[in-house]
Sequence to fold (557 residues):
Amino acid sequence: MVATSYSTLLTLTTPTQSELNTKQPCKNMKEVKQLQAQITKKGLSHRPMSYSKLISSCADIATPESLEYAKKAYELFERDGRSRVSLYMLNSLIRGYCAAGFVDEAILTYAQIVGEGVTPDRYTFRFVLSGCAKADLFLEGIQLHGSVLKLGLEEDLCIQNCLIHIYAVCGEIDFAKKLFNEMSERDVVSWTCLICGCARKDRPKEAVSLFFEMVDAGIKPNSVTLVGAISACAKLRDLDLGEKVSSYISKTGLTVNTFLANALVDMYMKCGATDRAKQLFGECVDKNLESYNALLSNYVRQGMEREALATLVEMLQRGQQPDRVTMISVAKAISQLGDFAFGRQFHGYVMRNGLDDWHTVGNAIIDMYSSCGKQELACRVFDRMSTKSVVSWNCLITGFAKNGDVDSALKLFNEMLETDVVTWNTMIGALVRGSLFDDAIELFKVMQNEGVKANKVTMMSIASACGYLGDLDLAKWIYHCVENQGIHRDLKLNRALADMFCRCGDTENAMQMFDKVKNIDVSSWTRVIEILNEIPKRQSSSDQEDKSIRNVIIKSE
Fold:
């Protein structure tokens, strides 16, 4: 089977004047159909260029209707010209499928190219790799990378950038960095893909470091680069660093577009510069949904619930249609306020606008009603949900626990067919808050027997239960569980373990919990002092007490 290449395609026919008149891109399906009518009327339907123009136009529009039209056009071309396969047309189909988010169809079309014995070209890989990146298809990306190497296309800069992008968005930053470091040539896209990947995947320090390395290398950042670097500064909560990065907006002569403005608002809010964020938000002319969501979600995070609800009102007055991110933030604001009246109005709006189809929104509303003390309404929302995830069950159990109904929470827990560590943590935490310490320990043992891996939240609850029981042997077993399971001992967990040992009468082990902590906060220092004060008077002159005091003094230095 012989493929029609781009250069061959252009020499198959000499376009007529009417063909030249159709060179303007079609903007919608009506214009596509008009184009087909002109082709048919002029007797040009047998020419490959006519099919190419038609399929490419449909790919540009990239709607389900246009892509189905393009697929049928290609099938018609195959019937009319069985001796050739047009790689250009199939690449156009892949491009359209990827633009519309139909990645499975794009991959099937790629498989069709290979199955027909046609060699994919650099455009094929560029299009299909971009589609895989959209759908986080890491394994497919690896396979395509292998094909790129076999065909000797690994030095193509655009393909290299596509590979870095797919590895980065799939969270495989080390793969992306390895490929990046091996590149003989890098452009702004190469740097931007890696910077944004690091920023998204909780490696913000690397993202910022790469940004300054890029600038030092003489590569001028674009607006996408700056959005990635600024969002990394937001995650670091480092205002000074954020200001330093954002200074490159003016240095490079870039205009602050909506995406940059959104990133800056988010950064200022997360870094505590609320007034600066509000000023920038007010100055932004082209506010979009992301603009409002950035401000709204940060208001909620900072406990400024009334400001969040005011932002929602402004958003609706300006005709901006909220999405599930908006709804989840608003539900959380109402939960924190405990405002049942507003909550009912909000739920009504969600139902009238069909926004309750998202189970994540349903989960947020369950939590909202539970926080307002209306557990029966939370149960009603849960019962009406068409799709119940583990998170949905967890929300309802949390609601029962929050409202002091441990029995109902335990009953629901026992009905669950699928659980996760959050489920177990919620139930154990409910038992501890209900002073059912022995039951909490027993449930933890069941969790261990079922192979569910505990985390620091689990161990903080269990340490609290053990402390109230005052069982030193149990405390030592719990400590060994933390160590043996490789659970990271951060400040909060160390404080919980210290409190556990102290309540069990073992002040020496209690003090040792702080040995590896570098930055102890005020509340932890307070607990250290309390522990020292609880050391029996008879040990005041002993070497053990002297050592404990020395440890505290050394840490303060």
In short: The longest strand covers residues 2-4. The first helix runs from residue 6 to 11. The CA atoms of residues 57 and 138 lie 30 Å apart. The two ends are 77 Å apart (CA to CA).
